[in-house]
Amino acid sequence: MLALAGYPLGLEFVFLDPAAEACASPLGAHLHADYLDQKALTTFVQQIDVATYEFENVPAPAADFVAARVPFRPAPQALTAGQDRFDEKQMFERLGIPVPRYRPVDSLPALELAAREIGVPAIVKTRRMGYDGKGQVRLRNFSDCASAWQSIGSPALILEAWVPFEREVSCLGVRALDGSVAFYPLVENVHRDGIIRTARPRQNDPLQAQAESYLLRVMKHLDYVGVLAFEFFVVDGQLLANEIAPRVHNSGHWTIEGAETSQFENHLRAVTGLNLGSTAQRGVSVMVNFIGDLPPLAELVNIDRLHLHVYGKTPKPLRKIGHATLTADSEPALDAALADFQQRFGAYL
User: Fold this and answer.
1) Are 192 and 344 in contact (CB under 8 A)?
2) Tens of pLDDT along 107-122?
3) Domain 101-161 adopts which CATH fold?
4) Quick check: 98 pLDDT over 90?
5) Confidence band (pLDDT; 50, 70, 90) for 134?
6) DSSP assignment of 17-80, as one string?
7) Which fold is adopted by the domain 167-348?
């Protein structure tokens, strides 16, 4: 999607991706290699003017290798800031951004002690790696500690208090090389099994200004360049920080059809030193993810004002293999279109 947004700008692309079936392969040169393969990294930097990433688990040594040779945006410190959940929470606190209660955990006794301090239910997560619900287990009572510790299989964990949230939202912003910023409307997300199922931008959300303030603090702290996503819980009408994603984000896919400038184009504008584009909404929209498999293509393309994106990934359980964006002229019309879509294709969402 970054490449698709960049071609109209006259950009060309080289992709370093360890996946043999990398979705971007048809859109540029694909270097099929491990992120830490120095021969591949050398070939990579020899062919490019600027580097960016769309996956936050790129190893820090790979980022440092590239950044020492070509401009790397966002910078390596932005990439690594969210790679350890404990360090990330501490950064939020230093910046005055409220977070749920949490404790670092490195043994089963430590997990049991943390669970008694924080209380249950709670969520135990790996400090590093893990996304879309991977690497985390919910503790419903104290007796779950042993099985959770055994099932995750990592000595570096964090226990977070279970948050009785009213909504889950995300704020996406973009910061240019000159420090100018732009923000997209706050997005209301619905998750299941740790995976976003729908993402819907909300114009004039009462928490927009608060979300932008928190996002801006992180951007300035990291001297950030590019698109940054910040996920929050809404509790008692206020925001609690969940996590950042230093990249274009699933909750911003609606911007391709639903905003004047997509998150992908704005990310490329930022990292290549161009001026930012307008983040204003075009009508109203909602994104729905396809999980595991795709509905029949012939049925999807017959739906008015539905925009389909198929990723070319092999179907398998709990894998995001595509999305669709529904657009409308009014919120009631979008409500009706979404309800009909969910009724017809709920098994794929």
Assistant:
1) no
2) 899 888 999 999 989 9
3) Dna Ligase; domain 1 (3.30.1490)
4) yes
5) low
6) -S-TT-TTGGGSEEE-S-TT-HHHHHHHHHT-S-B--S-TTS-HHHHHHHHTTS-BSS-HHHHH
7) D-amino Acid Aminotransferase; Chain A, domain 1 (3.30.470)
